[in-house]
């Protein structure tokens, strides 16, 4: 097992290594003991009976419950992430607009939808569409609520991405005669988009997880299907476990993919990074204070946007 | 207008928000404790504890909160007959608190760990090189900086937690905001917009001060490097 390096601990000497080994054995015994207690308790209650588990994973369960539920989840999440990107681009660029009115309106919209719980929006749009007599109102309730919330998060990503670019990009755009809007659209936003690809992918994880809220408004997605299957055979614990494992595997792979994408992007755009740093060093004589101020401010912005996005439901 | 205010009073909207605030308070308290323990596991030099911490975070960060809530009621209570109170409503309330705690502890753990990660290795090396032993280096140099770095991400987790208390609807807590809003709209569809905006503004009022406070605190206490 790879020992993670942390800032707190120095490389251990022989005595510390002995202590770590001892702690490792004790820790492993405690963790394994906890797992054993849970398993024994489950066994006492008869929850480990093979029939309960076989019912939760047999061919019929997959064909009639998990697979259609999974497809419904994907259908909602795919439409929602595309819609959220469009919403985010429009409102993110709107927040960067040079017109005060546009900036204020876009800012208010984004902040509003970021503060309202997704479930409230889902319930509202679901009942709104149902009252209006639209077909598949629960599906559109899920999709619209997800677009509005995640779109606002993407808008913040766009804004912090553009703020994170070296200011030379805009200056270069302006100096070849582009207007501010043109430089934003054709120079800054495209670069910000590439830089925020990993964050967008993590947002897809949030969308997938939030789509499970659809179960509350009776949208037949994966969780709802697992619940229906389980209440038929009274093995809901087992079917929920299967659904949870599916979610974990998909989201974990997406997270890993996003990390790898982030690393490879860092490699390819490394050249811009170093030139920016080089420019910073060269400009020290001119405006060292201004440069560093801008840098820390941007880093803070990006951090807030990123963690705010990752911490959704 | 008067009629609408009567509806708001009839369905006890303020009471519904009070339930969510209580859910958020207890879940925040417990998940801070559990998350800190998990963070200690993850930054300890002991591989088995590191593994346990990161396994917990991987499992619960990638799982929808709704599944945990449904599990608490239909799995833990319905199937395993695990209960926290004899009274139905109190039982569901505490099951929801447990569900929220399990889920958000993973995020608290990551927030604290990211705070520790903001401390450059040079700080620890400098502390050691002036002869500070482990506890003193941690207490005087590393942890004060780590806590400051953790303020902003912890604030974000708290905001997410407050909003996520609405998911208690999946754990059969019928008196919290999203369930009350649903009932209100079902009985008074003529006021659907007003009802939604009442609840939405309520959350804006709850969440905005937390965000402002955590941003201003993290700016004020930021370590200049």
Topology:
The complex is a heterodimer of chains A (313) and B (225).
Chain A (H helix, E strand, L loop, with lengths): L13 H31 L5 H8 L1 H37 L4 H16 L2 H14 L5 H27 L3 H9 L4 H16 L1 H15 L10 H12 L2 H33 L1 H13 L1 H27 L3
Chain B lengths: L1 H9 L2 H31 L3 H15 L3 H15 L8 H30 L3 H9 L4 H31 L12 H11 L4 H29 L5
Quick gist of this model?
Chain B: Keywords: Amino-acid transport, Cell membrane, Membrane, Transmembrane, Transmembrane helix, Transport. The complex is a heterodimer of chains A (313) and B (225). By secondary structure, chain A is an all-alpha fold.
Description:
The complex is a heterodimer of chains A (313) and B (225). Chain A is mostly helical. Helices cover 82% and strands 0% of the residues of chain A. In chain A, helix 4 crosses helix 6 (137-163). Chain B has 225 residues and is mainly alpha-helical. Chain B is built from 9 helices and no strands. The radius of gyration of chain B is 21 Å and the shape is flat. The mean pLDDT of chain B is 92. The chains are: A mainly alpha (313), B mainly alpha (225). Chains A and B meet through helix 1, helix 4, helix 5, helix 9 and helix 10 of A and helix 3, helix 4, helix 5, helix 6 and helix 7 of B.
Number of helices of chain A: 13
Helix proportion of residues of chain A, in percent? over 70%
Describe the biggest sheet of chain B? none
Largest sheet of chain A: none
> How far apart are the first and last residues' alpha carbons of chain A, in Å?
32 Å
The overall average pLDDT of chain B, rounded, is 92
* Molecular shape of chain B: flat
Multimeric organization: heterodimer
* Helix content range of chain B: over 70%
Keywords (chain B): Amino-acid transport, Cell membrane, Membrane, Transmembrane, Transmembrane helix, Transport
Transmembrane segments (chain B): 23-41, 62-80, 92-112, 191-212
Family (chain B): Belongs to the binding-protein-dependent transport system permease family. HisMQ subfamily.
Pfam family, one (chain B): BPD_transp_1
């Amino acid at each position: 097992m790879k020992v993670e390096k942390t800032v707190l601990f120095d490389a251990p000497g022989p005595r510390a290594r002995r202590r770590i080994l001892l702690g490792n054995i004790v820790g492993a015994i405690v963790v394994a003991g906890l797992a054993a207690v849970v398993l024994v308790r489950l066994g006492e209650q008869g929850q480990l009976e093979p029939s309960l588990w076989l019912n939760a994973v047999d061919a019929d369960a997959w064909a009639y419950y998990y697979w259609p539920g999974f497809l419904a989840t994907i259908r909602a999440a795919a439409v929602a992430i595309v819609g959220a990107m469009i919403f985010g681009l429009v409102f993110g660029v709107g927040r960067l607009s040079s017109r005060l009115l546009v900036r204020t309106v876009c800012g208010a919209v984004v902040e509003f939808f970021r503060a309202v719980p997704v479930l409230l929006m889902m319930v509202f749009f679901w009942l709104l569409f149902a009252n209006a007599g639209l077909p598949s109102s629960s599906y559109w309730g899920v999709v619209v609520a997800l677009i509005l919330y995640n779109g606002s998060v993407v808008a913040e990503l766009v804004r912090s991405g553009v703020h994170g670019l070296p200011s030379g990009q805009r200056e270069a755009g302006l100096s070849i005669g582009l207007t501010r809007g043109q430089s934003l659209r054709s120079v800054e936003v495209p670069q910000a988009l590439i830089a925020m690809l990993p964050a967008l992918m993590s947002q897809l994880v949030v969308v997938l997880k939030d789509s499970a809220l659809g179960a509350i408004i009776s949208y037949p997605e994966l969780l709802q299907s697992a619940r229906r299957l389980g209440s038929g055979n009274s093995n809901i614990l087992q079917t929920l476990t299967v659904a949870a494992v599916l979610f974990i595997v998909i989201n974990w792979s997406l997270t890993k993919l996003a990390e790898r994408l982030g690393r490879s992007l860092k490699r390819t755009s490394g050249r811009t990074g170093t030139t920016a740093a080089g420019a910073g060093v060269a400009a020290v004589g001119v405006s060292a204070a201004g440069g560093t101020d801008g840098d820390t401010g941007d880093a803070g912005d990006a951090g807030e946007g990123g963690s705010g996005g990752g911490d959704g439901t | 207008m008067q009629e609408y205010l009567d509806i708001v009073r009839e369905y006890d909207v303020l009471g519904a928000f009070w339930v969510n605030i209580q859910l958020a308070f207890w879940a925040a308290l417990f998940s801070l404790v559990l998350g800190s323990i998990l963070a200690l596991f993850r930054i300890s030099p002991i591989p088995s504890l590191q593994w346990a911490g990161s396994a917990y975070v991987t499992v619960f960060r990638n799982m929808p909160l709704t599944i945990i809530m449904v599990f608490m009621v239909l799995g833990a209570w319905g199937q395993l007959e695990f209960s926290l109170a004899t009274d139905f409503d109190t039982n569901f309330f505490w099951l929801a608190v447990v569900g929220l705690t399990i889920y958000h502890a993973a995020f608290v753990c990551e927030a604290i760990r990211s705070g520790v990660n903001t401390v450059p290795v040079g700080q620890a090396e400098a502390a050691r090189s002036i002869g500070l032993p482990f506890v003193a280096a941690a207490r005087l140099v590393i942890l004060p900086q780590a806590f400051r770095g953790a303020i902003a991400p912890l604030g974000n987790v708290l905001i997410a937690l407050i909003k996520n208390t609405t998911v208690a609807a999946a754990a059969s807590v019928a008196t919290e905001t999203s369930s009350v809003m649903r009932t209100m709209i079902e009985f008074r569809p003529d006021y659907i917009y007003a009802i939604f905006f009442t609840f939405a503004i309520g959350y804006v009022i709850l969440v905005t001060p937390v965000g402002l406070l955590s941003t201003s605190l993290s700016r004020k206490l930021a370590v200049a490097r």
